Amino acid sequence: MASFYNQVPSVSSVFFLYTSFSAITMLLRTILNEVVPKGIREYITVKLVDYFSSYFQSDFTFVIEQHWGEYVENQTFLAAQVYLPTRLAGLTTGKLLVGSNNLKNPTAQPKLGIPVDTKIMDEFEGIHLEWNLHNVKSKGRRDKQYFHLTCKKEFREKILADYFAYVTESAEKVMRHRENLQIFTYNKEDSDWESTLAIEPDLKTTLMNDLDAFSKGKDFFKSVGRAWKRVYLLYGPPGTGKSSMVAAIANQMKYNIYDLQIQSVKEDGELREILTSTTNRSILLIEEIDCGSDILLSGLLNFVDGLWSSCGEEKIIIFTTNHKEMLDPALLRPGRIDVHILMVYCTPLVFNKLVSLYPKIDGHILCDAIEKLFLEVSITPAEITQQLMASKDADIALKGVIEYLETKKIKRKKIQNWRLMEISKMLGSKKQKHNWLSSAFSYL
């Protein structure tokens, strides 16, 4: 024991060493301040801090921000948003985010979300991982969100090479099997091919085959150097089912819908920000494209032609219009719109589908009379649907359809008679007949 105390330095010795070290440190600081330029001193300080913090710190943190660049959504962030709710069993605190956007069934089981500033533990090939979602308040804009993913330093390269790919693949599987769709800007009612959309069977088959080929076309688009996108134009009179067709496509593909009102966009910069913020596996819907300004149309076409490959993949663009003849020829140029779909007036096949959906009957004695009226009167599926929904009684509903068609037929006859009278006035005397003949036919 005595020998141990003999080895302990005296207080005076410790004090002497401390003062000597302090003096040397002050001398070195003075020399550095006098000789070494300030910029180099700051650089050396930063490097020393990084070195010692790296030496003593065993963890490494990946920062995954919501946006990559000024406008584009960070696809890794979006994948984490989808993946992490499947790992909520790894929550380390006693709180859980729950909610529902199911307007059709408010009592449905709520969905689970990712709480802010709450640790979610995960494990990948024996590696323990820690996720944390952070939120930063921002004035005038949406709050900024970002994830922290923390692991041991020695697994950094493994996480970069394999884990992020695993998260993305897992998110894609979840997206392909989700039940509820999100429709941005407006709350449109979800639908599906069999329950709410009445279209010609041939058109349905053709469109479904095209969508199926598109969903499986990743390797093809990559091999030909084209962005993985598909552009559709739905055109035809109002009420012929263009909006229902969009909802059916979204439900078939399990895609979200971004409903862009092109008339409300003021400038190209705003348009670019909106377009680049849409996610993968989504539909960009632009209704009444004929009402957009030439400047915004130019920006839209430039975006469609040139930037899709750097702003995500597996996207569908759908334009709708009631007047295809009024569209800018630049939009209809080959290579821009892949599929043109004419939405027509109600046909017997579509009518029979609507009858099976609303009165829920298969055939009726009044159906033949209604189908014959279709030869004389043009009527949209929306008009037929409105009449069929007037009563749950099939007899009353179908009689209402006949009365509606007969009324339209009488109005159409009156309009034709009025036009014939106007033509007679235009023709005037026999001398003027030849001069007005071409104008009369075009008027009809």
From TrEMBL:
Keywords: ATP-binding, Hydrolase, Magnesium, Nucleotide-binding. It comes from the Eukaryota. The keyword ATP-binding applies. It catalyses: ATP + H2O = ADP + phosphate + H(+). Residues 228-347 form the AAA+ ATPase domain. Pfam families: AAA (PF00004), AAA_assoc (PF14363), AAA_lid_At3g28540 (PF25568). One of its GO terms (molecular function) is ATP binding. One of its GO terms (biological process) is response to stress. Its cofactor is Mg(2+). PANTHER family: BCS1 AAA-TYPE ATPASE. Belongs to the AAA ATPase family. BCS1 subfamily. This is AAA+ ATPase domain-containing protein. It comes from Brassica carinata. The lineage of its organism: Eukaryota, Viridiplantae, Streptophyta, Embryophyta, Tracheophyta.
